[in-house]
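Record type: ASSEMBLY
Status: queued
Input:
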Amino acid sequence: MLERTHLTVVQAVDEHGSLTAAAKELCVTQSALSHTMRKLEDNLGTPIWLREGRSLRLTQAGQYLLSIANRVLPQLHYAENKLHQMAKGELGTLRIGMECHPCYQWLLKVVSPFLEAWPNVDVDVKQKFQFGGVGALLSYEIDLLVTPDPFYKSGLSFEPVFDYEQVLIVPNDHTLATRKYINAADLRDQVLLTYPVEPDRLDIYTQFLNPAGVIPKRHKTSETTDIMLQMVASGRGVAALPRWLAEEYCRKFPLSVVRLGKSGIDKQIYLGTRETDNDVEYLKAFIELARSYKHQRANKESLTDKKN
Amino acid sequence: MLERTHLTVVQAVDEHGSLTAAAKELCVTQSALSHTMRKLEDNLGTPIWLREGRSLRLTQAGQYLLSIANRVLPQLHYAENKLHQMAKGELGTLRIGMECHPCYQWLLKVVSPFLEAWPNVDVDVKQKFQFGGVGALLSYEIDLLVTPDPFYKSGLSFEPVFDYEQVLIVPNDHTLATRKYINAADLRDQVLLTYPVEPDRLDIYTQFLNPAGVIPKRHKTSETTDIMLQMVASGRGVAALPRWLAEEYCRKFPLSVVRLGKSGIDKQIYLGTRETDNDVEYLKAFIELARSYKHQRANKESLTDKKN
DNA sequence: ACCTATCGATTAATTTTATTCATAGATAGT
DNA sequence: ACTATCTATGAATAAAATTAATCGATAGGT
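Status: finished
Output:
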């Protein structure tokens, strides 16, 4: 009943001084505005303007209506703008879900250039999902899943964006420190430090220890990578980490990296999305950024390899 | 482009769970809503809902739109309500203009019962007018003029609401205190206290002193009635006031009232309004209240007279 | 595994609404 | 007094919203 047009007309008349001028501004005839506002006045039961000769003077109701127009119209304009930006995929919230700890370390590297490139897009990172990461993706709890386990299913698409080797990290003076690689049996009398998750979600168990039927001497957990590696550095145990991350810590602490098994444990990080989101610009951009980060790192690593 | 309907529909769908339910609520067909929202989605370039089987799920844009709806719609509802109240004359601001000091004293008496009776109507009192009180009335600066000088002109109507006698107030021990009435010449050697306005707007000059060609010994001014009468009480001069006001002060201070001239100076207070405002309920109510106050006071006075 | 009820989308027809056109009435300025 | 410039108005027209009828999809019951 009180429509946006009415507010627009009141505002335009106030700004341009007359119905005629307002009509020109709004690209309609003066008659149209006259009819429109007359109808509103009839509905409200009060005039908006007093007609004095050939000019209009706002009544009290009209003044109030003008104040409403000046308050509400900007809100609508702003909303329209935002919606258009959202439509163009320039604005929104990228809700990222994660299913592994190494993913988190990797994610931190990619998120910051993304935030810079897309100042109007927020990033939300979630880690707990009632029905798993894929469930969260399918139920629109998240828009992007970072996971080591692609789960091919219609409606979803997964893409590997990062390859890494899972390695053992030990103190420099550890008996295993100089080994080219270790076997599962070598961990039988070691204390193993991991993140506090179930062993069947830890690659070192599923891909290394379990197949060989080996159980380490003890298993301790640590929430954070820093604490974990400080414990490793002080000889309290050994830990498994992505090589790129382990090497970073080798610079900070007296630690060494050892391959797990003769050919190593190779892992990938995948990004999962809904196919319905294929045209969301900032999502595509994030994946592109993730891809380029992978290559950049690959180049770096080959350089380091040569140095060694 | 982003219309009120769109907001209403988004809100209704959120509240009732489906387009169909929302349509029933809004008393239109489901088809109508489907068309309306489809058009909006086309305009924005982004869907508001994801169609999943037979249910709708808000997109990010949709969630934003819903938040806008929840913010903006109440504003419009509230505005509509207020406008309807204004239309019924139950709401507004009564802007009162005043042209004389006694008017102000009288006004105070009438305004408070009015404010009680019309809790939704505000009262604004103004005293300075570039083009006089009538000008202020005609230019919609005020809605009601309280004045001793009716100015009959087409478009305006004046109504007397209060009769009073302008009297001289003197200290109890003053030489004039016991006189039945005084002549202009009696003020020749008195100090006259008045409000600080031009003498041609003071009745004691225009209707009493000037006709007799008398000028008082001295003329002092005071902004407030209280101070003025304290000065009178301490023998610094004499003042002219409406009788009803003077008698009130006689109870507080040792003061006496003396008639000005043999038959006294009779004055009226008029209320002036624009004829276009004839159907403004609260304006009519104010005038009615003013009238009733006049009668009430008249009765009181006649009672006091009998006692004396 | 098959009905059935229900949901949203769609097309064409229809109704309602908004807008224009043409013109009258009023008025401020020259 | 004349003219230009307002707003209002009624009828005609254009545009938009709404409906009716129907389709395809799907969740839930049997």
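Annotation: The domain at 4-87 of chain B is CATH 1.10.10.10 (Arc Repressor Mutant, subunit A).
Annotation: Residues 5, 28-29, 31-32, 35-36, 39, 53-55 of chain B lie near DNA strand D (CB under 10 Å from a C1').
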